[in-house]
Design goal:
The protein has one domain: Alpha/Beta hydrolase fold, catalytic domain (Rossmann fold, 3-Layer(aba) Sandwich), CATH 3.40.50. Helix content is about 35%, strand content about 15%. It is built from 14 helices and 9 strands. Strands 3-2-1-5-4-6-7-8-9 form a 9-stranded mixed beta sheet, with helices on both faces. Helix 3 links the parallel strand 4 and strand 5. Helix 1 runs antiparallel to helix 8 and helix 6 packs parallel to helix 7. The longest helix is centred in the first third of the chain and has 15 residues. The chain is globular. The two termini are about 35 Å apart. Keywords: Signal. InterPro entries: AB_hydrolase_fold, DUF900_hydrolase. This is Esterase/lipase superfamily enzyme. It comes from Roseiarcus fermentans.
């Protein structure tokens, strides 16, 4: 999933080059599949909440969803909706979850004991979405009141995006409010051009979502984690926000993390010129074969996510634009054949991302809750009662249960000094 090139520049390729590139990518597809046994010693590959000290039950995680797709499945998921659609999904993470993985069944329906699964989902209109999110934020007393928005990349279905957002919330130990912005994708290697058009058409909707999040009463910081083509989409939305006079989302813009961004270096420079001094961090590796392919398609133009941060001149080029860069090359074994999803497949990398964005602040602990739990009617209350402890926040499905604290600083990733 998500293992192939995303970003700008495909229009410059000749049909012969495009066919050759796509054939090469298709050959690589058969090799995808990280070997988690080789990924460091981050809890022996297990997230902390899967330890023996945690009850043996699935962990509920809630995900706010803003979508520009017409629907969630089939042809509707590949088409642009005239207006954004909203929902609140309750997902569950299995007790034996391995950091860096998305547990799915080989066939049949997901089993909450073994797989990341959907427990329930409620469609919302725009006003309900804002009110529900405000309740979740205001009810987070003593914990993180931030929002993390995940924006996926090319070749991603609705279900894949929802599963990835859930995995990120779990593996980053994010105790704030998790949100997913999903846009129409052909979910097909050969749908690259169509996906780029869909991402372009979704810029205004993402800008509107970010603006609304910044206006949410009591919100802390609004963080963005964007992968590949989603990085281009996110930077375009932030650029539009800056042009509209809302450069920092009313003071609430937090970290902007671009994971393997498929953005042309010149385009990135123009985007940064508008949004700086935003706190932008690029996670990059020259081992990213998907971005190498994207660069080839774009007449060998450099992709931001494929710079070599070990080279002072490459690092200086990014830093001169006002962004930080983190070299994730040493973690490439988490996606050894493609190198494009290291940010989520490596427990060390996603744990470090969480450590950067998830630290609670003093003002959160002093806040007074205004949460009214009776406003939320869980469509699958009986099912949730089985997986959540009675009386816990998870049992009411009102907010994400705070996850375990991030792993020690030994897994922290810092930009080269």
């Amino acid at each position: 999933m998500n293992a192939f090139p995303r970003g700008a520049g495909v229009f410059a390729a000749s049909p012969l080059h495009l066919a050759a590139a796509l054939t090469a990518a298709l050959a690589l597809a058969s090799c995808v599949g990280p070997d988690l046994d080789t990924v460091g010693d981050y809890g022996a590959g297990l997230s902390p909440f899967a330890s023996a000290s945690v009850p043996d039950r699935p962990l509920p995680v809630q995900v706010f969803i803003a979508s520009t797709r017409k629907g969630e499945t089939g042809e509707a998921s590949r088409r642009q909706a005239p207006e954004p659609r909203y929902a609140l999904a309750t997902m569950t993470v299995p007790p034996g979850h391995r950091a860096g993985s998305i547990e799915e069944p080989l066939w049949g329906r997901p089993n909450g004991r073994n797989d990341i699964a959907l427990a329930g989902e409620r469609d919302l209109d725009e006003d309900e979405f804002r009110a529900e999110l405000a309740s979740h934020v205001s009810g987070r007393v003593g914990v993180n009141r931030d929002v993390l928005v995940f924006v996926h990349g090319f070749n991603t279905s609705f279900e894949e995006a929802r599963l990835r957002a859930t995995q990120i919330a779990a593996d980053a130990h994010f105790g704030g409010v998790m949100a997913l912005f999903t846009w129409p994708s052909q979910s097909d290697l050969f749908g690259y051009v169509s996906d780029k058009d869909s991402a372009t058409a979704s810029r205004d909707a993402l800008q509107g979502l970010l603006h609304d999040l910044g206006q949410t009463p009591g919100v802390g910081k609004v963080h963005i984690l964007a992968h590949s083509m989603g990085g281009w989409l996110s930077m375009e939305a932030l650029r539009a926000s800056a042009i509209a006079g809302d450069r920092d989302l009313s003071g609430h813009l937090g970290d902007v993390i671009l994971a393997s961004p498929d953005i042309d270096m010149t385009v990135f420079a123009s985007q940064m010129a508008r949004i700086r001094p935003a706190n932008v961090t690029v996670f990059a590796t020259p081992n990213d074969k998907a971005l190498s392919l994207s660069s080839f398609i774009a007449s060998s133009r450099q992709r931001v996510g494929a710079i070599d941060a070990a080279k002072p001149e490459d690092r200086a080029e990014i830093e001169s634009l006002g962004a930080k860069v983190v070299d994730i090359t040493q973690y490439s074994d988490a996606d050894r054949f493609i190198g494009h999803t290291v940010f989520a497949n490596s427990g060390e990398v996603i744990g470090a991302i969480g450590a950067q964005i998830a630290a609670p602040r003093a003002e959160d602990a002093r806040a007074v809750s205004s949460l009214d739990e009776s406003r939320y009617q869980d469509p699958d209350a009986a099912q949730h009662a089985v997986v959540a402890a009675p009386g816990s926040p998870a049992a009411t499905a009102v907010q994400v249960a705070p996850l375990a604290a991030p792993a020690p600083a030994t897994v922290g990733l810092k930009p080269p000094s």
